[in-house]
């Protein structure tokens, strides 16, 4: 395949960026998208030019680092597929492919196609944990988990923190990510002790990171490579309301609030 790539090049955070065109003339349809970029980078290095910076790690769809906007779609045209699992057979010979970093205020560009997604780390750190007693492991049957709850929790736990939901959202909202992280612990018995403080802390941190608000475009669910459902957002909003009322309860009563 012979392709033309229009790639966002930006030398550093806050620097002026621009699209540059590159010819990719020896692309196999069996290559992954990242392998195709590797080949382009080898050619650039051979010519003494700066390679294109892009993020990647596992290359098997589990780490969430391969965050690329491909032809305006996070992770490209194939539904429920990360960039590293996208193959060049999803494109046609002669195509022009535009490759950009995530575009969201909360994810500043570090270089070329690499953005800073540490706001997600801080949301996780705010409440993405459970307390567990130390000592020997509990008997497996001591805490029974209903099947429907464990299924929902596992679905939410599939979130790989890639940020495609934020990039796809016209508001740059992180509600799908945050709600998945709140849900996968909050649905399980083991996650109950911190359920209220968890949702309060994670939503507070999400707001502090300047993600936009959710106005129900649902682009996040469509772009998510792990098909995280927007039902998690509704679940998180219910949890948030309940936790807020409980949190404000005593002070509200003391103040004589009706
Ligand atoms: S919810 Fe989906 S799109 Fe958003 S970070 Fe998790 S896996 Fe990525
Ligand atoms: S490189 Fe890990 S999910 Fe793509």
Explain what this protein looks like in three dimensions.
With 258 residues, the protein is α+β, with helices and mostly antiparallel strands. The chain has helices at 33-46, 118-127, 147-157, 164-168, 175-186, 195-208, 219-223, 231-254, and strands at 3-9, 18-24, 69-70, 73-74, 96-100, 109-111, 114-115. The strands form two sheets. A five-stranded mixed β-sheet has the order 2-1-5-3-4. α3 runs antiparallel to α5 (175-186) and α6 crosses α8. It is elongated and about 60 Å long. The chain starts with a strand and ends with a helix. Residues 252-258 have low confidence and may be disordered. Bound molecules: iron/sulfur cluster and FE2/S2 (inorganic) cluster. FE2/S2 (inorganic) cluster (FES) binds at residues 56-59, 61-66, 82-84, 160.
């Amino acid at each position: 395949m012979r392709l033309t790539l229009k790639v966002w090049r930006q030398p550093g955070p806050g620097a002026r960026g621009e699209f540059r065109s590159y010819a990719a003339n020896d692309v196999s349809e069996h290559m992954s998208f990242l392998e195709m970029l590797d080949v382009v980078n080898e050619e650039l290095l051979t010519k003494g030019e700066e390679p294109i910076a892009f993020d990647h790690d596992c290359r098997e769809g589990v780490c969430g680092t391969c965050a690329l906007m491909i032809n305006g779609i996070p992770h490209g045209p194939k539904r429920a597929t990360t960039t590293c699992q996208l193959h060049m057979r999803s494109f046609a010979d002669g195509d022009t492919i535009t490759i950009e970093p995530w575009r969201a205020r909360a994810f500043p560009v570090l270089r070329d196609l690499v953005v800073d997604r540490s706001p997600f780390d801080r949301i996780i750190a705010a409440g993405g944990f459970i307390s567990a007693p130390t000592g020997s492991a509990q008997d497996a049957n001591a805490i029974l988990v209903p099947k429907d709850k464990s299924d929902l929790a596992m679905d939410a736990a599939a979130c790989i923190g890639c940020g495609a939901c934020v990039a796809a959202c016209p508001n740059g909202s992180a509600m799908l990510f945050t709600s998945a992280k709140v849900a996968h612990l909050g649905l399980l018995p083991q996650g109950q002790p911190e359920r209220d403080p968890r949702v309060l802390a994670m939503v507070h941190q999400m707001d502090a990171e300047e993600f936009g608000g959710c106005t129900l475009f649902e682009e996040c669910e469509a772009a998510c490579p792990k098909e995280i459902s927007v039902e998690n957002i509704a679940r998180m909003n219910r949890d948030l309301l309940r936790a807020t009322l409980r949190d404000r309860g005593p002070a509200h009563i003391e103040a004589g609030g009706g």
